[in-house]
C-alpha cells in the first residue's frame, strides 16, 4: 500500500488531480484539519465514495494513520487506482508545525467528550452512594469496568454512542465546512 509523510502531502496539496479525504469523525475534523481536506468519515466510505473522483490521486488522512490505512484498503476495493495513506495523520501534521484549519464553534473532540461523560457518571454514582444509598456505587464501578474493557480491547462503546449524538453531526451541506473556519499555525 502507498504511503507518504505529512511533508510529502504538503508538497502535493493544491496540485491538479489531487484530493485529500479526512476519514475521522466530525468532532475531530471540526476541531482541527489539514486545510482543504474533505470530510468523509471511515464508516461512510462505502456509501459516499461516489463523491470522490476516481481519476485523481486520493490522499486519506486520519488522526494517526490507522483509520487512513483502513480507508485506503476500502477505497482500493471500490476500484480507486491511486490511494495514498498519510503516515502519522493530523497528529504528525501538527507536530511538523504545519497550519490547521478549524471551525470557530467546534464541538469537543470525542476523547474529551468520553472523559467528561465518564467523569459525570462516576461523580453522580459516588454522590448518590454517599447521600442516597450506598448501592449506587455500582454505577461508578460499572463505568470503571467499561473504561478498563475499552483500554484492553482498544474500542470505546461510549465514544461510538457519543459520535451518534446530534451535536456531533456535520450539518453543513457543503463537502468542506468553511463557515466560521480559521487557520492556525
Summary, kept brief:
The protein has eight helices and seven strands, in the order βαβαβαβαβαβαααβ. With 185 residues, it is of the alpha/beta class.
Mean pLDDT: 90
Approximately what portion of the residues adopt beta-strand conformation?
5-15%
CATH superfamily of the domain at 2-106: Rhodanese-like domain
Identify low-pLDDT runs: 173-179
What radius of gyration results from the CA coordinates? 19 Å
Shape: elongated
Task: Provide the helix percentage.
Answer: 40-55%
- Strand/helix succession: EHEHEHEHEHEHHHE
> Strands of the largest sheet, in order across it?
1-5-4-2-3
What is the helix tally?
Answer: 8
Overall number of strands: 7
Largest sheet: 5 strands, parallel
SSE class:
alpha/beta
Any idea of the CATH class of the domain at 2-106? Alpha Beta
CATH architecture of the domain at 2-106: 3-Layer(aba) Sandwich
CATH fold call of the domain at 2-106: Oxidized Rhodanese, domain 1
Distance between the termini: 30 Å
Tell me what the structure shows:
This protein is an alpha/beta fold. The protein contains 8 helices and 7 strands. It has helices at residues 6-12, 26-31, 45-48, 66-77, 89-95, 110-131, 137-153, 157-163; strands spanning 2-4, 18-22, 38-39, 57-61, 83-86, 100-103, 181-184. Helix 6 packs antiparallel against helix 7 (137-153) and helix 6 packs across helix 8.
Amino acid at each position: 500500500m502507498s504511503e507518504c509523510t505529512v511533508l510529502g502531502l504538503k508538497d502535493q496539496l493544491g496540485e491538479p488531480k489531487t484530493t485529500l479525504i479526512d476519514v475521522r469523525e466530525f468532532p475531530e475534523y471540526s476541531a482541527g484539519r489539514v486545510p482543504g481536506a474533505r470530510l468523509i468519515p471511515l464508516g461512510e466510505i462505502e456509501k459516499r465514495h461516489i463523491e470522490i473522483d476516481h481519476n485523481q490521486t486520493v490522499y486519506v488522512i486520519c488522526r494517526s494513520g490507522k483509520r487512513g490505512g483502513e480507508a485506503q484498503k476500502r477505497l482500493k476495493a471500490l476500484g480507486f487506482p491511486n490511494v495514498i495513506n498519510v503516515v502519522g495523520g493530523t497528529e504528525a501534521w501538527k507536530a511538523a508545525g504545519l497550519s490547521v484549519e478549524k471551525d470557530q464553534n467546534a464541538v469537543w473532540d470525542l476523547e474529551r467528550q468520553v472523559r467528561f461523560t465518564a467523569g459525570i457518571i462516576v461523580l453522580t454514582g459516588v454522590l448518590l452512594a454517599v447521600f442516597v444509598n450506598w448501592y449506587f456505587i455500582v454505577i461508578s464501578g460499572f463505568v470503571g469496568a467499561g473504561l478498563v474493557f475499552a483500554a484492553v480491547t482498544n474500542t470505546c462503546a461510549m465514544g461510538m454512542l457519543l459520535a451518534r449524538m446530534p451535536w456531533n453531526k456535520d450539518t453543513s451541506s457543503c463537502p468542506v465546512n468553511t463557515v466560521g473556519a480559521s487557520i492556525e499555525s
